[in-house]
Specification:
CATH superfamily of one domain: Ribonuclease Inhibitor
Shape: globular
CATH architecture of one domain: Alpha-Beta Horseshoe
Subcellular location: Cell envelope; Membrane
Radius of gyration: 30 Å
Protein name: Leucine-rich repeat-containing N-terminal plant-type domain-containing protein
Helix content: under 10%
CATH class of one domain: Alpha Beta
Structural class: mainly beta
Keywords: Glycoprotein, Leucine-rich repeat, Membrane, Repeat, Signal, Transmembrane, Transmembrane helix
Strand content: 25-35%
GO cellular component, one term: membrane
InterPro entries: Leu-rich_rpt, Leu-rich_rpt_typical-subtyp, LRR_dom_sf, LRR_N_plant-typ, PGIP
Largest sheet: 17 strands, mixed
Distance between the termini: 115 Å
Number of strands: 33
């Protein structure tokens, strides 16, 4: 008796369909095993970032996983926390099991905050790895000297961790790097001279460490550098002459919060592509070069907390976003017109700049975008009411130690305002209830009177007025 071919055909079709469904629902076993091993090393995932990572499903569809379309091998792992979302983080370690992902070319573990452990040395076993971004976590220990073996790397970012010790000299072997970001760690020692070999760099960031010595004079090797961040270290000496070679392309030069000395070099006026220049909190002396008038594209200029003297050059900016000249030895007399005429400025800080003017005479082109205004320690008279009542997004206003005279009750306290300091002026009237929503307040040593509204501020915020009363000062008389 012969079997009909029709049932066999149906059976073959069902088996074939089953195979297709199974193959479509899974990924390569090694990739799945490696990823699930990583998940097992995570001890806390409050936002369910890895909820889609389930065995037997297609790992190419899991959150943060990317695959090649032809062979469905995992090529990158990208998990990122959101700084504004409280529970958007992961706790745990980076599991060795990721070494099974042999096709991996990029690891992006950013802003996860609680990933701890040492440098993940398993990355040395990944033959195709080109991009490492393990940023804003809690990795610690030393960066291994063997990191120099990863000569295929195009980008290495370990910013925002807790790495200690020196920057490995072997990094000089990573000649394919376009980005080297080691900022926000606890690194010590000097900058390896061998970094001059990384001639493809466009982004070099070593800020916010404990690096010492002078800034190396090796920048003539870099023809494509656009971002240079060395702020918040312990560098001493002068700005090296070879930085002048970066003028054609450099957009960000950040050297603030170090121990740099000498005069600001005149060659900085040649940096016509400069967006941001931060030389704050150093020991620079002398005058600001007249060549700064050539910086027509600069948006952020911070020269605060140095020993700079008059005269300040006339700038020719088309629009500046933030300006900070505070705490030098300037006698500006008035708020610079080139800042006043900017339609996009949001931060103006001119504390102790020798300004002597009536505040009503200052009429900036645009007040809408202002976040921060600091005019402390000048000789400014008049009232800020007309100015501040035109702002909608003001976060902080500091004007202590001036000669302002106005009724505090006329000041509009916008919802965004967090910091208000009017100490040591001639402010009068009552303290409005709206100040209770601020984070910091200081109206001490004025001529305010009446009962203080219920606030969280200490007595030092209100002391030295004519007749303020009530907590945290003495009780009001009935």
């Amino acid at each position: 008796m012969q079997l009909s071919s029709k049932p066999l055909l149906i059976l073959f079709t069902i088996l074939n369909l089953h195979c297709l469904i199974v193959s479509a629902s899974t990924c390569h076993p090694e990739d799945e095993s490696g990823l699930l091993g990583f998940k097992s090393g995570i001890t806390s995932d409050p936002s369910n970032m890895l909820a889609s990572w389930k065995a037997g499903t297609d790992c190419c569809t899991w959150a943060g996983v990317n695959c090649l379309s032809d062979n469905k091998r995992v090529t990158s792992l990208s998990l990122s926390g959101q700084p504004d979302v409280p529970n958007s983080f992961l706790s745990g370690i980076i599991s060795l099991s990721l070494s099974k992902l042999r096709f991996l070319d990029g690891i992006y573990l950013q802003n996860l905050r609680n990933i701890s452990g040492s440098f993940p040395t398993f990355v040395f076993q990944l033959p195709n790895l080109q991009f490492i971004y393990i940023e804003n976590n809690r990795l610690s220990g030393r960066i291994p000297e063997t990191v120099g073996n990863m000569t295929r790397l195009s980008a290495l970012s370990l910013a925002g961790n807790r790495f200690t010790g020196p920057i490995p000299n072997s990094i000089s072997a990573l000649t394919q790097l376009t980005q080297l970001k080691l900022g926000g760690n606890l690194l010590r020692g000097s900058v390896p001279d061998g970094i001059r070999r990384l001639q493809s760099l466009t982004f070099l960031s070593l800020e916010d460490n404990q690096l010492t010595g002078t800034i190396p004079d090796f920048f003539s090797s870099f023809t494509n550098l656009r971002i240079l961040r060395f702020s918040r270290n312990k560098f001493s000496g002068r700005i090296p002459p070879s930085i002048s070679s970066l003028a054609p392309k450099l957009s960000y030069l950040e050297l603030g919060h170090n121990y740099l000395t000498g005069q600001i070099p005149d060659f900085l006026g040649n940096f016509k592509a400069l967006d941001t220049l931060d030389l704050s909190s150093n020991r620079f002396s002398g005058t600001v070069p007249k060549s700064f008038g050539n910086l027509t594209k600069i948006f952020n200029l911070d020269l605060s907390n140095n020993f700079l003297v008059d005269p300040f050059p006339e700038m020719n900016v088309k629009g500046i976003e933030s300006l900070d000249l505070s705490n030098n030895r300037f006698h500006l007399s008035e708020i610079p017109r080139w800042a006043t005429s900017s339609p996009i400025i949001f931060s103006l800080k001119l504390a102790r700049c020798g300004i002597k003017m009536k505040l009503q005479d200052w009429k900036p082109v645009e007040t809408y975008f202002y976040d921060y205004i600091d005019l402390s320690g000048n000789e400014i008279t008049g009232s800020p009411v007309g100015l501040l009542n035109k702002t909608e997004y003001l976060v902080g206003f500091w004007a202590s130690e001036n000669k302002l005279r106005f009724d505090l009750g006329e000041l509009k306290i916008v919802k965004t305002l967090k910091y208000l300091n009017l100490a040591k002026n001639s402010v009068f009237g009552k303290v409005p209830n709206a100040v209770a929503g601020l984070e910091k307040l200081n109206v001490s040593y004025n001529h305010l009177c009446g009962q203080i509204p219920k606030t969280k501020f200490p007595a030092s915020a209100f002391t030295g007025n004519d007749c303020l009363c009530g907590p945290p000062l003495q009780p009001c008389k009935s």
